[in-house]
């Protein structure tokens, strides 16, 4: 006798990871193990120096494609899927017409620096910290609000359509959710607290939109999505999609999702994700902590009607994307993974230091005027040394963020004793050992390194009872590899001192009369 599809036991949670360079769908089982993966890259659009865009329609089509691909690979249908989680590149902003579903402009990506003039204008005489007490963030090109302001100011007719109530705005989770749940036919317009906390438009203490800041940026509040907890039901799959009536019940920005997947549920626990950029978060509990050392105050996660949990974050703009630059712009390597082998052909960096300030410097400096620099060059330096300098730059940047984090955390009596790591670059053994050497504490990689997608899956599964709560996440987490510091103190400090010197060479590069 055939089983009624409605009674099939739910065996999996599907995670959609809409990242900076690709969209992926990953199917997880109850043990948190990967069952199947499908992935598709999207075009990186660079109209001008400092401008970075994506095609929102291409991304939505890719999401549909990878969902179909992962279900096909696993030979699974929607009846076996308990829920769907979404995680996303944060701060990247899209504005679209709610009646047609068409974006009015490309996605403006988090790395994009075009909004500097808007940020300067908003800062006025008060300075970049004008809104920091309310939203936990300083004015910077990184965040979503000024990107939306740019679209409304520069796309013909956009402001009029927005004021007429025809346009919606969102980060990429909101765009995917709206389309997944019906689009123009009743799509849900919502986001979660973690993504909302990266817009510069949400009050960090009360978790609601700040109408005064929206007014300052010229953003009609009718465009804004509803803010919901990270773990809870947002909506259900559209009738003409592959996931009909499947609950979408977890949304977290990618770095918060990785923190969740790494089971950093205790105050003082931290993780660092090595992806396009590098992002370190430390759990600060249910009270937002204002940084005195160049870090961001952000929402870490919120489960249902429980209090929100906060984090301090150190954001590094360029990490894995520097390896891609070495591959695509210079052609020094054919594949990203080749950088480790090339770096291993030399014993050290040969005196070369690479500061990848392609989008200015993020934490802890927040210097939009900085630009990338390769310094310390002599005739001795070869491509192996440059590859090594590329590798080391990620570790040096991470150490700077960690030291800022420890200074902030010292006020609450917590110090980091180990660093949990995840993301694609953690496969690089040379980098991970150098990272342990530089931070002076063990670096620990979990067995499942896809913690971003896993965190979104956990949030989605907890909301529908597939997992009972955070203890299941803790129980599923397992150590995969550990690197202990091995470098002598004198060498460690010499290298870092030279790195700091290299950073000073990148500053004050962009003048008012320099048009990029």
From TrEMBL:
Residue span(s) of domain Carbohydrate kinase FGGY C-terminal: 271-463
Residues annotated for ATP binding in this entry: 20-22, 276, 320, 324, 424
Catalytic activity: glycerol + ATP = sn-glycerol 3-phosphate + ADP + H(+)
Enzyme class: transferase
Recorded family membership: Belongs to the FGGY kinase family.
Membrane is among the record's keywords: no
Pathway(s) the chain acts in: Polyol metabolism; glycerol degradation via glycerol kinase pathway; sn-glycerol 3-phosphate from glycerol: step 1/1
Transmembrane segments annotated in the record for this chain: none
Positions annotated to bind ADP: 20, 24, 276, 320, 424
Domain of life: Bacteria
Alphabetized Pfam families for the sequence: FGGY_C, FGGY_N
Designated name of the protein: Glycerol kinase
Gene (name only): glpK
Alphabetized UniProt keyword annotations: ATP-binding, Glycerol metabolism, Kinase, Nucleotide-binding, Transferase
Enzyme Commission code(s) on record: 2.7.1.30
Listed InterPro entries: ATPase_NBD, Carb_kinase_FGGY, Carb_kinase_FGGY_CS, FGGY_C, FGGY_N, Glycerol_kin
Regulation: Inhibited by fructose 1,6-bisphosphate (FBP).
GO molecular function: glycerol kinase activity
Purpose: Key enzyme in the regulation of glycerol uptake and metabolism. Catalyzes the phosphorylation of glycerol to yield sn-glycerol 3-phosphate.
List of residues binding glycerol: 90-91, 142, 254-255
């Amino acid at each position: 006798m055939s089983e009624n599809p409605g009674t099939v036991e739910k065996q999996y949670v599907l995670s959609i990871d809409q990242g900076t360079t690709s969209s992926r769908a990953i199917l997880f089982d109850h043990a948190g193990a990967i069952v199947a993966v499908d992935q598709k890259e999207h075009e990186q659009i660079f109209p001008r120096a400092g401008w970075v865009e994506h095609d929102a329609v291409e991304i939505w089509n890719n999401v549909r494609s990878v969902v179909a691909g992962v279900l096909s690979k696993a030979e699974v249908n929607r009846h076996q899927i308990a829920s769907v989680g979404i995680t996303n590149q944060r701060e990247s902003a899209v504005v679209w017409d709610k009646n047609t579903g068409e974006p009015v402009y490309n996605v403006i990506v988090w790395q994009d620096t075009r909004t500097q003039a808007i940020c300067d204008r908003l800062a006025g005489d008060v300075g970049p910290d004008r809104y920091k007490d309310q939203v936990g963030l300083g004015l910077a090109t990184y965040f979503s609000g000024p990107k939306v302001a740019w679209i409304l100011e520069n796309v013909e007719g956009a402001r009029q359509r927005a004021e007429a109530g025809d346009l919606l705005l969102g980060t990429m989770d909101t765009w995917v959710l709206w389309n997944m749940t019906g689009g123009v036919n009743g799509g849900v317009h919502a986001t979660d607290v973690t993504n909302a906390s990266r817009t510069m438009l949400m009050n960090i203490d009360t978790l609601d939109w700040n109408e005064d800041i929206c007014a300052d940026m010229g953003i009609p509040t009718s465009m804004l999505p509803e803010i919901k907890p990270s773990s809870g039901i947002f909506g259900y799959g559209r009738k003409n999609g592959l996931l009909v009536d499947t609950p979408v019940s977890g949304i977290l920005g990618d770095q918060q999702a990785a923190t969740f997947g790494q089971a950093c549920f205790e105050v003082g626990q931290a993780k660092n994700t090595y992806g396009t950029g590098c992002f370190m978060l430390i759990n600060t509990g249910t009270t937002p902590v204002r940084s005195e050392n160049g870090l961001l105050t952000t929402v870490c996660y919120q489960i249902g009607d429980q209090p929100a949990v906060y984090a301090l974050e150190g954001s590094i703009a360029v990490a894995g994307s520097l390896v891609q630059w070495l591959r695509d712009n210079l052609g020094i390597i054919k594949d990203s993974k080749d950088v480790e082998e090339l770096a291993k052909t030399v014993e050290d960096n040969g005196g070369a230091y690479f500061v990848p300030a392609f989008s200015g410097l993020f934490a802890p400096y927040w210097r939009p005027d900085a630009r990338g620099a390769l310094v310390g060059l002599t005739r001795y330096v070869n491509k192996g040394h440059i590859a090594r300098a590329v590798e080391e730059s990620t570790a040096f940047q991470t150490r700077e963020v960690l030291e800022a984090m420890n200074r902030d955390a010292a006020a609450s009596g917590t110090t980091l004793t180990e660093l949990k790591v995840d993301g694609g670059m953690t496969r690089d053994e040379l980098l991970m050992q150098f990272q342990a050497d530089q931070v002076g504490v063990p670096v620990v990689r979990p067995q499942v390194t896809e913690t971003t997608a896993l965190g979104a899956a956990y949030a989605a599964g907890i909301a529908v009872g597939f997992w009972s709560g955070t203890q299941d996440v803790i129980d599923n987490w397992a150590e995969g590899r550990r690197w202990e510091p091995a470098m002598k103190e004198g060498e460690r400090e010499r290298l870092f001192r030279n790195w700091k010197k290299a950073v000073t060479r990148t500053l004050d590069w962009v003048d008012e009369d320099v048009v990029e």
